[in-house]
Design goal:
With about 475 residues, the chain is of the alpha+beta class. The protein has 14 helices and 18 strands. The longest helix has 19 residues. The protein is elongated.
Length: about 475
């Protein structure tokens, strides 16, 4: 695709100033998909990434993409619809999400998935229910974690002439006469640069889970004692830059804890399974304490009520990730066992002894759960996702704690991904997509909806900036 500027890879205005059609800040899914979409429509795009490597939170995520997908779901006899996904997303966020934005999310989800597949990304044919995702519409990439997205979108961007610059930290939006004209940034050596954008700037800088000061401002309980699943760059830069020029924010107090994290570091990557269909949780007494198919915030709250906020994820050898011999983060069960992240027992008694929970309680919890699977009804916690018993040895336990995972709040946008000011009017030349945006997920995000959001609204931002919306 040809550039609308000269054929230079970067057009210099002066030694430290550059001009392009579009500047994208951030190189996770939202930034890369926005850049690729704008470039597909003929724009010359520069991506600025403050870290040395691209990928943001996407590359370390579980990579799960939610979409209503009749072709895949019909082979598993799964009923689904956009209306159901819409309703579950709204309800999952306590009906605080913007209904127009939520509908766009679910309506364009499959289109985004197919766009990725058209550009070479591969997903497994089997869909499942990711923890906190409520319904079996979760698509797992073939490549581990979020690496497949970044590889696919990076390749697409390069093929379209997008320039990606790493080690450039955006500091301030260049706001002139009511319009965002570009961004001021610094490289790793501290040198200042100005990047001017003829059509607009897209903020795709992510949330603020790694910014302890910022998150504790909105929720004082989330201090530095609580770890985060996020990479260190998730510090809310785009939100702060937007607020500085009068952008409105929404839902900043809504911060999600993910209950499935490693006790020492808060990392997600050491989890054995992400399929709700195959697991239960037990506390240090060996007792179940929550509906495992519930929302993440409900489960996290239940974890916090247990001793040391710790519980064990229990599954057996029927689990699909155990069967495949690799987790969705690209780890083998043997590797996780060897490093002490997962405990294996050839019998339930052996497992109970290894994790030091009362065997009588553990066996009673599992037998009662298995009976619930037979009956199709969980009398203890009302779990409805009852598909597989836990009965085939060997058995596995994975200790987990909650960690700060996702910030639902952020910049307010409209259906065209334009950032809004305090009066609800679009700020000319400024667009946003991904976790930097608030108002889509409401008070809680369903598992698997974040990756979908990055692609859907990243593409919308790329489309809108090229149309020159004001």
């Amino acid at each position: 695709m040809g550039s609308t500027l000269e054929d230079d890879t970067l057009k210099k205005k002066t030694e430290d100033q550059y001009l392009s059609d579009v500047v994208v800040i951030g190189s996770g899914n939202a930034g890369l998909s926005a850049a690729a979409t704008a470039a597909e429509k003929g724009a010359y795009v520069i991506i600025l990434e403050k870290r040395k490597n691209i990928g943001g939170n996407t590359i370390i995520s579980g990579g799960v993409y939610n979409a209503v997908d009749p072709k895949r779901q019909q082979y598993q006899n799964i009923f689904d619809s956009k209306e159901l996904h819409f309703g579950q997303t709204l309800k999952g966020g306590d009906f605080k999400g913007d209904q127009e934005l939520v509908w766009i999310l679910v309506d364009r989800a499959l289109e985004g998935l197919q766009w990725l597949e058209k550009n070479g990304m591969k997903f497994q044919e089997h869909v499942f229910t990711i923890v906190g995702g409520i319904w079996p519409r979760s698509h797992q990439p073939i490549e581990p974690a979020g690496t497949g997205y970044i590889k696919t979108l990076k390749r697409l961007c390069f093929s379209l002439g997008v320039r990606i610059l790493t080690g450039y930290r955006a500091e301030k939006l260049l706001y002139r006469k009511g319009r965002v004209m570009g961004v001021r940034c610094r490289d790793l050596q501290g040198k200042e640069f100005l990047f001017w954008a003829k059509k607009g700037v897209i903020l795709a800088t992510g949330g603020f889970s790694a910014n302890v000061q910022m998150r504790s401002r909105y929720n004082p309980l989330l201090n530095d004692i609580i770890p985060t699943t996020n990479q260190p760059g998730a510090t809310g830069d785009g939100i702060l830059m937007g607020m500085e020029i009068g952008a409105a924010v929404t839902g900043m107090e809504y911060i999600q804890l993910n209950p499935y994290c490693e006790p020492k570091t808060g990392r997600l990557q050491t989890i054995l399974t992400g399929a709700v269909e195959h697991l239960i949780y037990v506390n240090n007494e060996g007792n179940r304490f929550v509906d495992e198919g519930e929302r993440r915030d409900v489960i996290a709250d239940a974890f916090l009520r247990q001793k040391n906020a710790t519980a064990y994820l229990i599954n057996d050898s029927q689990d699909e990730f155990v069967q495949k011999g690799i987790t969705h983060f690209g780890k083998t069960p043997e590797e996780l066992i060897k490093k002490g992240h997962v405990i294996k027992g050839d019998t339930l008694e052996e497992l109970a002894n290894k994790i030091r929970v009362p065997f009588e309680n553990l066996i009673r919890s599992i037998e009662k759960y298995n009976k619930s699977v037979e009956l199709g009804y969980d009398s203890d916690f009302g779990r409805t996702l009852l598909k597989y018993k836990i009965e085939r040895p060997p058995f596995y336990a994975c200790p987990r704690v909650p960690a700060v995972h996702y910030t639902m709040g952020g910049l307010k946008i409209n259906t065209k991904a334009q950032v809004l000011d305090g009066k609800g009017k679009p700020i000319s030349g400024l667009f946003a997509a991904g976790e930097v945006v608030g108002g889509i997920h409401g008070a809680n995000r369903l598992g698997g909806n974040a990756i979908t959001e990055t692609i859907v609204f990243g593409r919308i931002a790329g489309e809108s900036v090229v149309r020159g919306l004001d």
